[in-house]
Design goal:
It contains 30 helices and 75 strands. It is an alpha+beta fold and 1497 residues long. A hairpin with a 3-residue loop joins strand 30 and strand 31. The N and C termini lie far apart (124 Å).
Length: 1497
């Protein structure tokens, strides 16, 4: 080999005088490959003479010798990075080799024997330096092995490795201290002694006798417990350990087996170990002496008691029958043992039947009947076990089963019955019309047909289905006819099938007796177009003839086009051929010239096939054959040369892939779905490519499949790398690329806490490694994206860190780094806000503060001097201030505690109780006609009988006019131009028109679009600001738009948005009711609305009352949480809420109709009321009774009972002291009580007769007689505004959920409603048409159109969607949420200060992120593919069909007509003057309607 490679030779003088020759060659790779000439014979060869050679890109070291005899034995990673230089040298001791790259000098050991762990690995490696040091159990050089010159201590050939055998090689787990003899081979002299070790079980001394070593098996306590699940044996390693070195030098497997695991004779005696079966004791043992009888010992499988194979055991259900079984070696039960039984496991339940042993070879299960559930199984195989003595199983090696069967199951027709297995002996009982056994059919009444009988032909054949129902006239179509009683043999139907009057030849292959005929069509005459399928079974008598209900049609097939028209020679192109009637017939063959195109699928208008490969570049004619019809059309397909790949760049990626790769080649545009592939370790990963033009495409690199134990820092080459381009095989593996995978970047977490704290403006540093791939040539970058929260930041990359210029954010945000196909979050970043005050500001504040302090001191001195009295006043003031401070602190502390605890309580309390959605009709009525319960459109038209016919005729004519777009638009425009046509009228007309057009939503949408287009034109002409469009409901169009969304978003409300809206309502209601609510003013401790906040400290306690269920007094009492400051009506409402939790509001009893009864321990019962003779009155203020007033303790039992009027509440405004009330207690103890006069609607105004004013928790602020002590609460009432914040925090999750659901395009299992996308696209079209490019205007139009017009209405009025009751405090909170929702949709900036309304300030921090959601939502909708008019119309038609009869159209038309009556002249005027109206005679038609509808006609 030296001659083959040129290069300079240098010589180096060795200590021994020998010369070493090295050839200097360029070695461009970083690997060395080591070669040996003769591994076994010359182990020291590499030390003396070495030569450097080159092969491809790899540096190698070869032992000098005759050419061609070298063996490669190792590849070593040498330097990194860069190529190896050709100069190399040995160290003086010849144990190291010095190797250089351009930047690095490396010392490589000549051998690394220590890497091999066993003798066979060591000597099998081929390394000439290595051998096995036996007693040290290590691979090493000979000179390093102690006493290696002594015999058998050092092995240098494979045959010298130590071997070991043991006798016996297995023992039972119940045998202890058994002598084991180990035969050893190639073991050195063991004079120092040897130990035997059974893994970690035991260790003992071994006795060396020649080349044998004697050991004893472990003692009883050391034997392993063999677990039954692991089979019947346990393998341990028996090891020999040298006492000289303390090392294990040989080992072999040793088995402990356990016979007792086996519980059947066959598994016992077939075990590979010495196991015996005792058949009378039914146990498996290793010691046959333990069997009780000599004859009971079994060693061979053929001596085992077992059942023999039998043909099917058939047992009809409900028929009493014995089962006889053949067997052998059946034991005779001994005295004290029980006899035989059969156990049948039928559908999971066990049936035991006594059995009789006739002799050792026969057993019979006694007479019994069996049955199983269901008629969907006609033959049920049942496990059969024969046992004796209760639980001793007889082996059943043949797995014999009993087949229970029902003749009638799944054999509903005569044909299916007679087709059953003859062994079942089923037949058709004609009188019962069912399949039965002969004994179950009353023979004297009617015949019983059986297959073997003379009269075995079924009457009344029936055809249920034919496939296909169309075919070419030329014939050849294989028609499948399915039905009942279609003959039992092929000859029955062989010549009696006609399809549409044409002979159809039945095929034997497709015939399924009684069920299916497949026949091939003959040619049809031109006069034949369609017809039925007719068959005769055997004879053409009426009772044996059948005719299909479906028609079969003859079709003419045509072709019109194909796409694409060219593809690669290798094939794989999916071609679509278009035409008409292409789904006719049964078999399709497509040919491109002589090349078949493999059929894939078809429809009436197209056939899809995949091209096969062609040998030449050629234009081929397309020929389609359907059955016997050849369809010709001048269509051609061009085979083009296969694509080629010329270059890819870059030729690297990271292990997770997904980095961009640019590909250049030819004919790339022929490929429909190009993909890129990489295969590694037998696993393939594929990624997508996108063709740019014929010569370029871009791909995302595929990931590399690496195992979990892969070293993450190594560069990898895929085994295969290439492209999947249809069927082009040549590019599946690219040979000319050196595509390389570099390790994935690895990031470090932000410390143990995972949080990085920074000041604003400080860059975020992400530490890691492999951040820049070590590509030769350098200057390569990966495309990193780093998100802080949701904002990207500018990234600077070095090899070990990413520097991210942090976006302008404060607070806590998650950091996410993405590159290629991987993403990683190192943790959170916390940006602390800067101090808002500058140094001069701080100084000036300090000075001002100092001056203020001096001023206060001066004032105090002046006061002190003035008088001693003022000093006392000061002390009193100081006490008040301290008192006030402690109250403020307590309030803030309470607010904080509530915020932390309430969120958890709320989310856990709102369990999955069903959502009480209103039905479609009620929901639409509440939105379209709010406040009107029984609207005429829900009732039949009420007309006197003598006018009914005329009025109905008139209204039908009027309906035709309403369905005329020209008339409807003219009608609406005329009404809108009338001054007396009020806002209310506009809304009413819009709703009535939509109820009439509910069944014609396509038309309604068309009219709505026209009206909106007119409104936009009008808005822009009148120079109004474009943002005002759709802001208020000032036109019919705007109300119609609301109604349109109302109709089309009902499904979305039910499936998606309804759930978070209902959760929010429940959360608000629940949170409000956790604190006091004033029954008179509606103010509450918990509120989102400042106006409805109780601004003083109310002391209250939560009680849990046990309430008797009013529907069922015996069911458990319901615990209800109540506040002791609640009025009796509030208590009743909370109890009703708890008991009827899952009952819609309208189905619950009303609180006003029930009385609250307090049941005391002694059996006494007391009716509690808001007002009664015990009610307290002070200074003209009467306070409603609460639970605290009645002193009801925690845990009391109460009941709701129906109202009963008694004398008790006749006492009205008398003032009665607490003690005098006791004389009424006897009167009180009865079961019912009347509704107090004021319990339903508490009085807010003073009682006119007595001047008494009602109050509950706080006295109405308009009455100025607050106590002196209340002034303190007046002074600091603003501190209670923190409660708004606590309530907001508690409800935040529910508000977020609702807004996120409304403002996201992807929902749980439901797509964005088409109506939203369609209307937004329409608004964008209108903006384009009018040249409005201001994004704010477009945003505002969309916001006014959907969120403000529809969603705000739903948020403020959830009772429009759900069957619920909304009280005033919930209403106030929902209004705040609705206002926040409106602000989120606005594009204008809100400047907020301390004087801004609290509901704006409350959500000021959240609104910017909500605005981002809205913008993203609008942007996502804009990016979605447009909805075609065809798809939209199909959707609208479906909606119309679903809700067609919800409203009475006649009543609605009658309501609309009332406006015609009011403005008839004004409406007729434009109809007369308009040309289009004139042509259609609309004015005349309307006059006809007016005449028919008039009273005096």
């Amino acid at each position: 080999m030296a001659e083959e490679y040129g290069g300079d030779v240098f010589e180096e003088q060795e200590p021994g005088g020998e010369k070493e020759k090295l050839h200097k060659l360029p070695l461009p790779n970083t690997n060395l490959i080591l070669f040996s000439k003769d591994v076994q014979a010359r182990p020291q060869r590499l030390k003396s003479e070495a030569e450097v050679a080159r092969e491809d890109n790899t540096g190698e070291i070869r032992v000098d010798g005759p050419r061609g005899s070298a063996l490669q034995y190792e590849t070593v990673q040498v330097v990194d990075p860069g190529p190896v230089l050709r100069d190399m040298a040995f160290s003086k001791d010849h144990e190291q080799l010095y190797i250089m790259s351009e930047r690095q000098l490396t010392r490589v050991p000549v051998e690394s024997c220590g890497q091999y762990r066993s003798c066979s690995e060591c000597l099998g490696s081929g390394d000439p330096h290595c051998g096995w040091c036996v007693l040290h159990n290590t691979c090493t050089r000979k000179e390093r092995c102690e006493r290696s010159r002594e015999p058998r201590r050092f092995a240098s050939e494979m045959k010298q490795c130590v071997r070991l055998t043991v006798h016996p090689s297995n023992i039972s787990v119940s045998q202890y201290n058994v002598l084991l003899v180990l035969e050893t081979y190639n073991v050195p002299e063991l004079s120092a002694g040897v130990n035997c070790t059974f893994e970690d079980l035991s260790e003992m001394d071994g006795l060396v006798v020649g080349n044998q070593i004697q050991c004893y098996s472990p003692a009883a306590k050391e034997v392993p417990r063999i677990i039954t699940e692991n089979g019947d044996h346990h393998v341990v390693q028996l090891q020999l350990k040298s006492k000289e070195t303390g090392m294990t030098f040989a080992s072999t497997s040793f088995v402990f087996y356990n016979c007792s695991v086996h519980n059947s004779c066959l598994s016992c005696v077939e075990s590979p170990y010495r196991c015996h079966w005792c058949k009378y004791r039914h146990v498996c043992t290793h010691d046959p002496k333990t069997c009780s009888f000599q004859e009971g010992r079994v060693k061979l499988p053929e001596d085992c008691p077992q059942l023999l194979r039998v043909d099917k055991i058939l047992v009809p259900v409900e028929v009493i029958k014995p089962i006889t079984l053949k067997a052998k070696n059946l034991p005779q039960p001994q005295s004290g043992q029980r006899g035989y039984e059969c156990i049948l496991n039928i559908q999971g339940s066990e049936q035991r039947v006594p059995a009789l042993r006739f002799n050792s070879s026969s057993v019979q299960c006694q007479n019994t009947s069996y049955s199983y559930e269901g008629m969907e199984i006609n033959n049920l195989p049942v496990e059969l076990t024969v046992v004796w003595n209760g639980h001793f199983n007889i082996d059943n090696p043949a797995q014999n089963k009993v087949h229970l069967y029902k003749c009638g199951a799944m054999r509903e027709s005569c044909g299916l019955c007679l087709k059953a297995d003859p062994d079942f002996q089923c037949g058709w009982c004609q009188s019962q019309g069912q399949c039965t056994l002969r004994q179950h059919c009353p023979v004297h009444e009617s015949p019983w047909l059986e297959l073997s009988g003379a009269n075995s032909r079924c009457t009344n054949p029936r055809i249920t289905e034919i496939i296909p129902v169309t075919g070419p006239r030329e014939g050849g179509t294989k028609v499948t006819i399915r039905g009942e009683n279609l003959g039992l043999e092929f000859r029955d139907i062989a010549s009696h099938v006609k399809v549409a009057g044409v002979e159809c030849s039945p095929l034997v292959d497709g015939y399924i007796p009684a069920e299916q005929i497949v026949c091939e069509m003959g040619e049809a005459k031109p006069s034949q177009h369609a017809g039925f399928v007719e068959i005769c079974v055997a004879v053409c008598r009426p009772e044996f003839m059948a005719r299909s209900s479906q028609l079969y049609y003859f079709m003419t097939l045509t072709l019109s086009d194909l796409k694409p028209k060219r593809g690669p020679m290798s094939g794989g192109t999916q071609v679509t051929i278009t035409g008409t009637n292409l789904n006719a017939g049964s078999n399709v063959v497509v040919m491109f010239g002589k090349q078949p195109c493999l059929f894939h699928r078809r429809s009436p208008s197209y056939i899809v096939c995949n091209t096969t490969s062609s040998d030449e570049v050629l234009e081929m004619k397309v020929m389609v054959q359907v059955d016997k019809a050849s369809i010709h059309q001048d269509l051609f397909f061009q085979y083009v040369e296969d694509p080629t790949i010329v270059r890819i760049e870059p030729e690297w990626s990271i292990v997770s892939g997904n980095t961009p790769i640019a590909v250049w080649g030819t004919h790339l545009d022929l490929i429909q779905n190009p993909q890129i592939r990489a295969k590694h370790g037998g696993k393939e990963h594929i990624n997508l490519c996108e063709v740019l033009n014929a010569t370029e495409m871009t791909c995302q690199a595929p990931a590399l499949a690496l195992g979990p134990d892969h070293q993450s820092d190594l560069t990898e080459r895929p085994e295969e790398f290439g492209f999947i381009l249809d069927n082009v095989q040549s590019l599946l593996i690219l040979n000319k690329t050196n595509f390389t995978y570099y390790p994935n970047p690895v990031f470090e977490a932000f410390g143990p806490s995972g949080v990085l704290e920074l000041k604003p403006g400080t860059p975020i540093i992400l530490k890691g490694k492999n951040l820049i791939p070590p590509v030769a040539g350098g200057n390569v970058k990966l495309n990193y994206t780093v998100l802080v929260g949701e904002k990207p930041c500018t990234v600077t990359v070095s090899d070990v860190q990413l520097l991210c210029e942090s976006p302008n954010l404060i607070g806590r945000h998650k950091v996410m780094a993405r590159v290629g196909g991987m993403e990683y979050s190192p943790g959170m970043v916390y940006v602390a806000p800067d101090s808002p005050l500058s140094l001069p500001a701080i100084v000036s504040i300090a000075v001002a503060g100092g001056l203020l302090v001096i001023f206060i001191v001066a004032v105090l001195i002046a006061y002190k001097r003035k008088s001693r009295e003022s000093d006392l006043t000061l002390k009193r003031l100081q006490m008040q201030m301290d008192n006030l401070e402690s109250r403020v602190a307590l309030e803030c502390k309470e607010a904080f505690a509530e915020l932390q605890t309430d969120i958890h309580e709320l989310t856990s309390d709102l369990d999955g109780a069903g959502i009480p959605f209103l039905d479609y009709r009620t929901y639409t009525m509440r939105v379209l006609f709010p406040g009107i319960e029984d609207h005429p459109v829900l009732r039949d038209l009420e007309v006197p009988g003598y006018r009914q016919e005329r009025v109905e005729k008139g209204l039908k004519l009027f309906a035709q006019l309403i369905n005329n777009k020209v008339f409807l638009l003219s009608f609406i425009r005329t009404l809108e131009s009338q001054r007396s046509f009020s806002m209310r009228d506009r809304g009413n007309v819009a709703s009535l028109i939509m109820t009439v057009l509910q069944s014609k939503l396509e038309y309604a949408t068309d009219v709505l679009k026209q009206l909106l287009a007119d409104l936009i034109d009008k808005n822009l002409e009148s120079k109004n600001h474009p943002k005002l469009l759709l802001r208020r409901t000032e036109s019919v169009a705007e109300k119609m738009l609301t109604n349109w969304f109302t109709f089309l978003l009902y499904k979305f409300l039910k499936e998606c948005a309804g759930e978070p809206l209902f959760s929010l309502f429940c959360a608000i209601k629940q949170q409000m009711e956790k604190g006091p609510i004033d029954a008179i003013t509606g103010e509450a401790r918990y509120s989102l609305s400042e106006d409805k906040l109780i601004r003083q400290q109310i002391d209250y306690k939560t009680l849990v009352l046990s309430c008797v269920n009013p529907d069922n007094a015996n069911s458990p009492e319901v615990p209800v949480k109540i506040l002791n400051c609640d009025t009796i009506t509030q208590v009743k409402e909370k109890i009703l809420d708890a008991i009827f939790k899952n009952v819609p509001c309208s189905h619950r009893p009303k609180a006003a109709d029930m009385d609250l009864e307090w049941r005391q321990g002694s059996g006494a019962r007391m009716i509690l009321q808001d007002e009664d003779i015990t009610t307290k009155i002070e200074n003209d203020w009467k306070r409603l009774n609460t639970l605290a007033h009645y002193q009801v303790p925690d845990g009391s039992v109460v009941a709701l009972v129906s109202k009963q009027v008694t004398a008790y509440n006749a006492v009205n405004n008398s003032t009665v002291s607490r003690t005098s009330a006791s004389k009424y207690e006897n009167m009180i103890r009865y079961t019912g009580s009347p509704d107090s006069l004021r319990s339903r609607t508490p009085m807010i105004t003073p009682d006119l007769e007595s001047g008494v004013k009602m109050w509950h928790l706080v006295k109405n602020h308009e009455h100025g007689d607050q106590k002196e002590g209340d002034r303190g609460s007046k002074m600091v009432s603003e501190i209670y505004l923190t409660r708004l914040l606590a309530t907001k925090g508690t409800l935040q999750k529910f508000v977020d959920d609702l807004f996120e659901t409304i403002f996201s395009t992807a929902h749980r299992g439901s797509a964005l409603p088409l109506a939203i996308k369609y209307m937004f696209d329409f608004l964008d079209e209108q903006a384009d048409k009018h040249g409005i490019h201001d994004p704010h205007v477009r945003h505002t139009w969309k916001s006014n159109c959907l969120p403000l017009r529809f969603w705000v209405n739903m948020i403020k009025n959830p009772q429009f969607v759900f069957d619920i009751h909304k009280n005033s405090i919930t209403d106030a909170c929902l209004s705040v949420v609705a206002q926040t929702f409106m602000d989120s949709c606005s594009t204008s900036e809100h400047r907020l200060g301390k004087d801004s309304p609290s509901n704006k300030l409350l959500y000021a921090k959240d609104i910017p992120s909500y605005k981002n959601w809205v913008e993203r939502y609008y942007s996502d909708i804009g990016k979605m593919p447009a909805i075609s008019d065809q798809d939209m119309n199909a959707y609208l038609a479906e909606q119309s069909r679903m809700h067609m009869n919800e409203f009475n159209a006649m009543s609605a038309l009658s309501e609309i007509f009332s406006y015609v009556g009011k403005y008839s002249e004004e409406i007729l005027g434009p109809l007369d003057h308009d040309d289009q109206c004139g042509k259609q005679k609309l004015a005349y038609k309307l006059e006809q309607v007016i005449t028919l509808m008039s009273l005096d006609s």
